[in-house]
């Protein structure tokens, strides 16, 4: 006779436990499941995808009714257990069904915490926990426009993204001063806010809700500071509380949740708990990875014959990733600094990348990654193994983006023991073995066979890479999509824009089948650049697709102030400009003036709302110090005063800077002109470096003085200034048209080859002429961005006025 096993809770942790039992000892138990919800077991995690329109409710079913039938699991849906008699070992459901058990598992999950606010019972105030909540939001969006999400944590932000996709206006109310404060530190939280604001969310930080207003239905919410906002829907996402009422009534020991030991045993014989309703060593987890580990341990324990000792559950290092398209965020372990910790940080504001690795006693104990999460599997592995890093260099712990070959998938260098799918605890070795031993050829087969990618789906790209890698298709040859929103490469997107005559970012995403409505911080700026490059005359720049510095035409500093860098053509200034700079510095209390390597003066520490006034008072043009465009043309003093100079380096530098300023390029471009090979202007490490030699000019290209130091290649030697200008025109236009967005000239030339560049530009005279013509068209449409804003009150309002989002009452 089979033993009788009853499961209370038809959710993710409970059913995973049954799956593990069926794997280990399929004939051991006769199983009965009671579920409060009227559905078979589904993937709660993917409710975010249903709301965001990426999946249908039917797509997220994990085990359909056939599965229960096949494994002879008796299922009672929509029928919660209301009583447990632990003496007689009988459960009773709401419908009156009674069922004897030999073993009983509580897997009742959590309830969303609903703030006990006056008015919280009004129609239109809901949580986000189950299919019903999801359906309510979708229905509401058909008749109403305004939504408020209370809580700027993982759930709140995923709900907000979904509501935006449903075309609602979304205000997120958050109690802390930056988003996801339980998972992120302040810089990452702020970067996240900027990204989500660009996607259309509005945030109200440090706000405490006092009351929900409205007659029967919600009409607005009021805050404790007296302000309020109107809304038609309130979604509360302020955390969860383990669902333990039934357990308490049944005499189980509870604290925050049902207290269990390392074998998921409660204080009552033959009664176990797994999932969010269980508390192990003082922790009740709220993510699936640890819950699945618990399920495995419990299955192992109750399938093991007498007197065998299994290792038991030891607790988990948890990590989180936000499932909002276009936002790469990763957080794991103890990521906050304290006196015992030290941190390695990388913060690239231009690319929107932030990485922090926290180290204590020579071990990585926590990490936060924003914008580029490729290092996450490796860091997690280091944390899980407690790897001693005393002999590792900082670069080995956090390799810079540029130092790794971006064409090689990270799976190629991963160890077999490294985890590919965190949710399901599946390692690279497990997947490779399954692929080779069972001849798997698709991600879906890998999922069925190993569980990898079966939960949040975040590891799908890695699984796909591993599949390609293991089945022998060289990973380096696989085409590299522009970003996670599309399978198309940069080149394919540009070709489609040209062929289909696409004009707007959203049109590009719609027509080319993007898998998200808004795109992400990788594809949006790239598409915006490509549209402008393809049709420089008609294109209307989409400033919302630009990074913060380019949106406000100044460089943001770590304290939130900005740096203003006016243009000084060829590094030449005069007393009038210097006087103006001094006056502006005094008037706006500018704390630091600094002469830069690009031969101009930086004004540091300007408040955002002062920027247009500072530009107006200076009366100088923008130096583009923030732009993917020509930055500076550095010049040596040359023939005017230097005894070695035989050429007019200053004159040529000024002419070049005036000719090419404000032209958009895939990445920043720097130039320098030196009037003799002594090279005082450092022409050898610029994108375009010009050196005067006996009666001629040498043009060096693709030099770089930054992270990837690279000496420029000699491209040609010409006699006149006009020839230099034409050659740079043609080269730059070829770079504009063929480089990938964010590819510096140095990387571009290395990719396509110097010989190729010489062939298409210098040897093909027709092409040379055509490139110059197209460059001239693009140049005909440039404007000084500062002047445009200084002359337009509307633009100043839109970009620089502090926005008043609350309605004062
Ligand atoms: C929108 C959303 C997105 C999420 N995204 C992620 C993510 O990306 N990554 C991640 O790791 N986690 C995520 N989570 C959390 C994850 O879904 C949960 O940690 C997981 O579902 C918990 O599993 P569980 O089985 O403990 O509880 P549940 O899945 O909640 O299952 C418990 C079930 O028990 C039922 N039940 C309760 N009481 C009774 C009773 N008396 N009788 C019968 N049945 C009962 C409930 O109705 C419920 O169906 C997300 C959660 C939500 C809501
Ligand atoms: N991608 C993911 O991994 C994912 C996605 C969704 C949900 N989840 C899980 O689901 C559970 C619920 O998520 P959650 O985001 O609700 O929980 P949470 O506890 O992580 O976040 C709740 C947030 O609400 C804020 N808050 C609390 N009181 C508030 C108030 N009165 N007003 C405004 N803000 C307030 C908190 O500051 C906190 O940031 C968690 O266990 C979470 O891990 C995970
Ligand atoms: S590069 Fe030559 S010409 Fe120019 S300043 Fe130096 S020494 Fe003089
Ligand atoms: S990491 Fe979530 S499914 Fe693999």
From TrEMBL:
Siroheme binds at residue 680. Belongs to the nitrite and sulfite reductase 4Fe-4S domain family. It comes from Halalkalibacter nanhaiisediminis. Pathway: Nitrogen metabolism; nitrate reduction (assimilation). Its cofactor is [4Fe-4S] cluster; siroheme; FAD; [2Fe-2S] cluster. Residues 320-386 form the NADH-rubredoxin oxidoreductase C-terminal domain. GO terms for biological process: nitrate assimilation. The lineage of its organism: Bacteria, Bacillati, Bacillota, Bacilli, Bacillales. This is Assimilatory nitrite reductase (NAD(P)H) large subunit. [4Fe-4S] cluster binds at residues 636, 642, 676, 680.
